[in-house]
Model the fold of this input.
Amino acid sequence: MRKLVKKYLAGARRFQGDKRGVAAIEFAMVVPLMVMMFVGTVEFSQAITVDRRVSQVASSTADLVARAKSLSTTEMAGIMDVIEQLVKPYDHNLLKMTVLNVQASPSDVNTTKVCWSYSHNGGTGSYPKDSSYTLPAGVVEAGDSVIVAEVSYAYTPLIFDYFIKTTKTLEEKFYLKPRLSSYVKYDGNDCG
Done:
C-alpha cells in the first residue's frame, strides 16, 4: 500500500509543475462569457436598428402626408407601400400605423379634434372623426392642424427568442404641420 501511495504522490508532483493545460482551461472558462457578450451586442444593435427604422417610418409618413393638399385612399395606400419598403429587410407585417389630421379649435388651442384617420395593418388606435385627441403643448396653434403619424412595431429578438419568448413593442409618434394648406383633406373630408 505504501508503494502505491508513493507512486501516486510522485505522479502528483510531476503534474504539479506541468503548465501545459492552463491556457486551455482558462479559455474554456472565458469562452461562454465572450459568446454571451457577442450575442448580446448583436441583439442590442439589431434592436437599435429596428427602432431607428420605426422612427424613420413615422417621420417619412408624416412628411409625405403633410406635403399634400388632399389625399385619396388609393394615394394613402401608395404611401404605405413606400413605407413598407423602408422597413425592409424586417417584416413589414409587424408594423402598425395610424395617420391622423388633428385640428385645434380657433378659440382654444387645447381643444383638439380628429378630422380624419387612416390605419395600416390594424393601426395603433381607433380615432373616429371629431373625437378628442390630446397633443403635446406647443405642437399646434389655435385654428391650425397637425399631421400625426403613430407607428408601432412588434420586435422579436433574433437569437434570444429561442431561449426567452418575448416581444418588445417599439413605438414612435411624429407631428408635422401641413405645408400647402391649414389641413390635409382625406377622401374629400374637410376639417372645417
User: Anything to note?
Assistant: The mean pLDDT is 85.
